[in-house]
Specification:
The complex is a heterodimer. Helix content of chain A is 74%, strand content 0%. Chain A is mostly helical. Chain A has one domain: ABC transporter involved in vitamin B12 uptake, BtuC. In chain A, α4 packs antiparallel against α5. Chain B is α/β, with parallel strands linked by helices. Chain B has a single domain, classed as 3-Layer(aba) Sandwich (Rossmann fold). Helices cover 32% and strands 30% of the residues of chain B. Chain B contains eight helices and twelve strands. The longest helix of chain B has 16 residues. The chains are: A mainly alpha, B alpha/beta. At the A-B interface, α9, α10 and α14 of A face α2 and β8 of B.
């Protein structure tokens, strides 16, 4: 029992993995085996990388002890900027690069203000959420830019890579990026600094870790991933809308938390964020496929988030109690 | 007389109008175990924070083995061989022992511009060795620091400092919040330092702890040194009176 608890403490994503499997089985039965049909899986796989990429960035940032509410707005701002540039005659790749640079800049500003003025990132990024959303509308001039199909090589990001038309390039991009960020966190000294910074800031500072810079770097990674995800969604839909990604910020936080990431920092894993994001997509889609009134979707996500946080807090308390026992 | 391993000359520090250190000059000899005592607000923590790089003095010099040094941040201090152990033991509870031992100084398999892949095997092996060197026996370097008792954590912190070949080890209230048994362990670690030729500065407001493991007592009050004697020539009563 003790070992089980310890495992659950060290691998907070374990519980959500279990839940994910259960839900998939549940929806598969409830929907009369439509849920895991090729057509439906294709639909889920189209959307998943977009939510999950945002969740990966937010998870990394939350492990570092900070928070980003502006990801939903950045999700819209990046593709809008890129599209406006492309329409203005800027080459596609340069436009992408400029768009991502803008995201990095926004992330830098988020982090710099948070650190410099020592204010909660909740507030900094809440402000940035409004500002970036507003910029999206301003940049578009009120009229969404139109890119003709075929004008940009969007297949590199969203084209199907297999003959059956099941997996899009976005899945590959997403897996590659997630693995990269996962390795960054688990296997590099930077990852060690991220965990130390989020886990116990005074210790990190006393050991000479440049925790301010580490946090700013995480803010930047988070913004860039959100922008990249928004670009993938826009290219998939081939429409550049100023309202894209509204509500994304909270879904991403929910995904991270459901996957076992702590709001206090220091605890969590990239794989947990991915599982959280997958859970959200599965619930969203599974409810539709099972003909449950989809207005309950947000209710389900909300309930699950609270459940996950309560569960994790309980696990941690149990863990502490256990430590007292071993002291004897 | 030998060159002192650490010397401060006329250190001053003001915190928004409060004169926290008023010209502290102190020489610490190599291999000495110095006990620094004083009430809250006496300036001990300020002095220590300056030596460990968390704060900078407003006036005065610090000399390390006779050379004037400029300590701007904790990294500088560690690079000079000064390791500080705080009462909260500067460990991240949710990270493993081996990761904690190497926070900020991770051995890398390869790196670009200071970033790179951790050499986890070396981290495990070295941390096991470092911990064994201070006579602390833990099951696994992969255990979380949060699972250890307070005394064990201080042991790991001391092992970490030893591993990085510290010349001077500053222990800032390492026995706070510890049980009697655990305190005895920590005092044992400090005694062990002397045998290994490491200079130590032990800060505490518990006089008994200081007298148990130090050979020189320095007492501070109101930002100044008010007493500086070998432990054999003073008593708890005399020191208490000065505070």
């Amino acid at each position: 029992m003790k070992r089980l608890f310890k495992l659950a403490l060290q691998k907070p994503e374990l519980a959500s993995t279990l839940l994910l499997v259960l839900l998939i089985v549940f929806f598969q039965i409830l929907s009369g085996a439509v849920f895991l049909s090729i057509d439906n899986v294709r639909g889920v796989m189209g959307l998943l990388p977009e939510t999950a990429l945002v969740a990966v960035g937010v998870t990394l940032l939350m492990i570092c002890g900070e928070f980003d509410l502006s990801v939903g707005s950045v999700f819209a701002l990046m593709p809008m900027t890129m599209a406006v540039l492309v329409v203005a005659g800027v080459p596609f790749w340069l436009a992408i690069l400029l768009g991502l640079a803008l995201c990095a800049f926004i992330g830098f500003i988020n982090g710099w203000i948070t650190i410099k003025f020592d204010i909660p990132s909740f507030i900094t990024t809440l402000g940035m959420m409004f500002m970036a959303r507003s910029m999206t509308v301003v940049v578009s001039g009120g009229f969404p830019p139109r890119i003709k199909p075929g004008q940009v090589p969007s297949w590199i990001f969203t084209g199907f890579v297999d003959d059956g038309g099941l997996i899009r390039a976005s899945v590959i991009w997403f897996v590659a990026i997630a693995v990269l960020i996962g390795l960054l966190l688990a296997k590099t000294n930077f990852g060690n600094w991220v965990r130390a910074t989020g886990g116990f800031l005074p210790a990190a500072a006393a050991m000479g870790i440049p925790s301010g810079k580490v946090k700013i770097a995480c803010f930047m990674i988070c913004s860039v991933l959100a922008g990249f995800a928004g670009m993938i969604q826009s290219l998939r839909l081939n429409s550049f809308l100023p309202a894209l990604g509204e509500g994304m910020e909270l879904q991403a936080v929910a995904a991270a938390v459901i996957g076992g990431t702590s709001l206090m920092g220091g605890i969590g894993s990239i794989i947990g964020g991915l599982i959280g994001a997958t859970l959200i997509r599965v619930i969203d889609n599974g409810m539709v496929m099972s003909q449950i009134d989809s207005n309950w979707f947000k209710f389900a996500i909300g309930a699950l988030t609270i459940f996950a946080v309560v569960g994790n807090a309980w696990l941690r308390r149990r863990g502490r109690a256990m430590q007292v026992e071993t002291d004897k | 007389m030998n060159t002192p391993i650490i010397e401060t000359r006329n250190l001053h520090k003001w915190y928004s109008g409060v004169h926290a250190l008023k010209g502290v000059s102190l020489k610490i000899e190599k291999g000495q175990a110095l006990g620094l005592v004083g009430d809250n607000g006496a300036g001990k923590s300020t002095l220590i924070n300056i030596l460990s790089g968390l704060h900078r003095q407003d006036e005065g010099e610090i000399l390390l083995e006779g050379q004037e040094v400029d300590i701007r941040n904790p990294k500088d201090s560690m690079r000079l061989g000064i390791e500080t152990i705080y009462q909260y033991n500067s460990m991240v509870p949710l990270m493993t022992i081996s990761r904690n031992v190497f926070i900020g100084r991770e051995p890398l398999k390869w790196s670009i511009g200071g970033f790179g892949i951790l050499d986890e095997q070396k981290m495990r092996e070295d941390s096991v060795k470092a911990i064994a060197d201070v006579d602390l026996h833990l099951r696994s370097p992969d255990a979380l620091v949060g699972e250890l008792s307070g005394g064990q954590r201080q042991g790991v912190a001391i092992a970490r400092a030893m591993h990085f070949k510290s010349k001077v080890m500053i222990l800032d209230e390492p026995t706070n919040h510890l049980s009697v048994k655990e305190t005895a362990k920590v005092i044992g670690f400090v005694k062990g330092l002397k045998e290994q030729g490491v200079t130590s500065v032990f800060i505490s407001h518990n006089m008994h702890h200081v007298f148990a493991c130090c050979d020189r007592i320095v007492a501070m009050a109101l930002g100044q040194i008010v007493l500086d004697k070998p432990v054999s020539e003073t008593s708890i009563e005399e020191v208490s009176e000065k505070l």
